Amino acid sequence: MKFYQPNTLTEALELKARLGTDAYFLAGGTDLVVLRNRGRVKGEHWIDLSKVPALEGLTEQDGVLRIGAGTKHTALESTRFAALAEAAASVGGPQIRHRGTVGGNVGNASPAGDVSVALLAFDAEVELQNLGGARRMNLADFFLAPGKTAIAADEIITALYLPADTRSAWFKLGKREATAISVVCAAVGVNAQGKAHIALGSVAPRPTRVPQAEALIADKGLTPETAREAGRIVSETIVPITDHRATADYRRDVAGKMVARLLTQLCPN
Ligand SMILES: Cc1cc2nc3c(=O)[nH]c(=O)nc-3n(C[C@H](O)[C@H](O)[C@H](O)COP(=O)(O)OP(=O)(O)OC[C@H]3O[C@@H](n4cnc5c(N)ncnc54)[C@H](O)[C@@H]3O)c2cc1C
Q1: Parallel, antiparallel, or unpaired for β 23-26 and 45-48?
Q2: pTM, full prediction
Q3: What is the tens place of the pLDDT at every residue in 167-178?
């Protein structure tokens, strides 16, 4: 295996364009190394992104928060973006949060990706770049299937963008308090116009939104009653699987209750 360490975004993109699908971007490595050890990733070339400054950091401008793809979970934990901060704080243990990045969480496209679910509640956009330029797409459309995204072979994830005035709430149910992949996780965001975004993890093949429940809040406004009704719609709409962590029935029930509780927390006084 060959290891590369570019110092700029252009160098990283030139390497990817030259090496193609046999090359993987390596951020914190907390997913990629595990996948390689299990034989599920076979790429011969690893392009380490840890020395690319353009991918680092959080910036806020004109009401929009930009999160560089290389931002570590630890950097999100202390922010005022409640769902993001709590989701980041719930990832693995301290060592994982010091290495793992937002771009890696999104790029890995796990149905249980905690930070990915939180970003959906902000209706976030993902920025993708190749040597020809950058494009942005809604994050909800980026996730296609477990481990599969809409990124092209020559692209890199550079950043996530989200409205900074969204109020949000988060809940994760795992089999234990720490270092636990979720049984179900939920994030809810309510933007300045009162529009709600409802996101769930571990209930579908990808981090997912529930537009039917969002439409109810858009139609009738957010009240304790519509919060309960949205929870009921969530339970009826999602199609989770039964696996070693929980049954589908349990996930449906818990997801609905979580969403109702989170929406209630965000009800205007
Ligand atoms: C013990 C343990 C516990 C964990 N617990 C949790 C948990 O509770 N919740 C959770 O959500 N996750 C958990 N994870 C998974 C992992 O830590 C996170 O998904 C993390 O955010 C991945 O980030 P990374 O920087 O390590 O990604 P990497 O492993 O470096 O990369 C992951 C994927 O994204 C791609 N990628 C990375 N950066 C970019 C980029 N800028 N552009 C394009 N592609 C990119 C890589 O090529 C790879 O395919 C856990 C992992 C371990 C080992």
Answers
A1: parallel
A2: 0.98
A3: 999 999 999 888
Give CA–CA dist 106/138, Å, rounded.
Answer: 12
Residue whose CA is at the smallest distance from ligand 1 atom 50? 92
What is the arithmetic mean of pLDDT over 29-57? 94
| Cα(218) to centroid(ligand 1), Å | 34
Smallest CA separation from ligand 1 atom 11, residue: 113
Q: Which domains does the chain have, with CATH numbers?
A: 167-265 (3.30.390.50)
Q: Which residues line ligand 1 (CB under 6 A)?
A: 24-32, 34, 49, 55, 69, 90-92, 96, 99-101, 103-105, 107-108, 112-114, 156-157, 179, 181
Determine the distance separating the centroid of ligand 1 and the alpha carbon of 223, expressed in angstroms.
36
Separation between Cα atoms, residue 247 and residue 239, nearest integer Å: 11
Checking if the pLDDT of 237 tops 90, the result is: yes
Cα–Cα distance for residue pair 189/64, rounded to 1 Å: 15
For CA atoms 64, 68, 73, 79, the dihedral sign is negative
Q: Residue with the nearest Cα to atom 3 of ligand 1?
A: 92
| Alpha carbon separation from 193 to 167, 190, 196, 221 (Å, rounded) | 11, 8, 9, 10
Does residue 60 contact residue 17 with C-beta atoms inside 8 Å? no
